[in-house]
Amino acid sequence: MAAPHNPFKKALAEGKPQIGCWMTFGEGSVADVMGTAGFDWLVIDGEHTPNDIRSIRDQLMALDASPSHPVVRVPIGEAWVIKQVMDAGAQTVLVPMVESAEQARDLVRAVTYPPHGIRGVGASGARATRFASVTDYVQTADQEICLIVQVESRAGIAALDGILAVEGIDGVFIGPADLSADMGYGGNSAAPEVRAVIADALTRIKAAGKAPGILGITDEAVQSYKDMGAQFLAVGIDLLILIQNARKLAQRWKAD
């Protein structure tokens, strides 16, 4: 039995638009709910949220029956962290703050089994192999793993062409908030100067044959990024969806 098919990787390779959403609660029950909303992909964020390997695993389990594909953002691009989330069942990994081609090559090696990579061959008792029931996992896993690197600094933008030349990178995700802060705009990703850099980056990513991605949290930002050519586009964050709608509801009925 081969490793499970990765529909998100296939969609990116075919140039199909993919609409997603960020998940920040670190709870399997929330992932279970979000998995019914109709998004093509959902980010389990291990960088800025109260997640650990157990909560990431629980959310992967919750999304097993969902048509929404889970994308796990690791807190840092270390091989041991990547190995853990992949053994827990993640097939698509998003790595933040990538700033060089050398770093990108190391990440490709981290998600790839030997002899071409350094991923530890220890998934036989883990979710990735469905607890040793996927007998040909090691022989077939590499081609189903999707690696997305996140460029979100001036150094990353400067190294973008080199990063794009690295074989094994499926997509490049632009982090607008961090990029705008690093450019001196205090997290204002709507600044014209920041938007110009983002538009250029998305164009270059697509031209290199990689999938360009980004997150927008307002309708204006989402539409702008869509017009710029973003292929996999996150259109919201679960916590903001909840609190913004909750506040509107409270204000509506307290106004009288």
Give the CA-CA distance, first to last residue. 62 Å
**What is the string of SSEs from the N terminus onward?**
HEHEHEHEHHEHHEHHEHEH
Tell me, briefly, the overall form. Answer: globular
User: How many strand elements?
Assistant: 8
Indicate the radius of gyration in whole angstroms: 18 Å
Helix share bin = 40-55%
Reported CATH architecture: Alpha-Beta Barrel
Walk across the major sheet and give the strand order: 1-2-3-4-5-6-7-8
Class per helix and strand makeup: alpha/beta
- CATH evolutionary superfamily: Phosphoenolpyruvate-binding domains
The overall pLDDT average reads: 97
Strand content: 15-25%
Domain count: the total is 1
Annotated CATH topology: TIM Barrel
Keywords:
256 residues; alpha/beta; TIM Barrel; eight-stranded parallel β-barrel; 8 strands; 42% helix
Description:
- The protein is an alpha/beta fold.
- It has a single domain (7-254), classed as TIM Barrel.
- The protein has twelve helices and eight strands.
- The chain has helices spanning 7-13, 28-34, 53-62, 79-87, 101-110, 137-140, 154-158, 160-164, 176-182, 192-207, 219-228, 238-254, and strands spanning 18-23, 41-45, 69-73, 92-95, 146-151, 171-174, 211-215, 232-237.
- The chain has an eight-stranded parallel beta barrel with strand order 1-2-3-4-5-6-7-8, surrounded by eight helices.
- β2, α3 and β3 form a beta-alpha-beta unit.
- α2 runs parallel beside α3 (53-62).
- The longest helix is centred in the C-terminal third of the chain and has 17 residues, at 238-254.
- The chain is globular, with a radius of gyration of 18 Å.
- The protein starts with 6 loop residues before the first helix and ends with a helix.
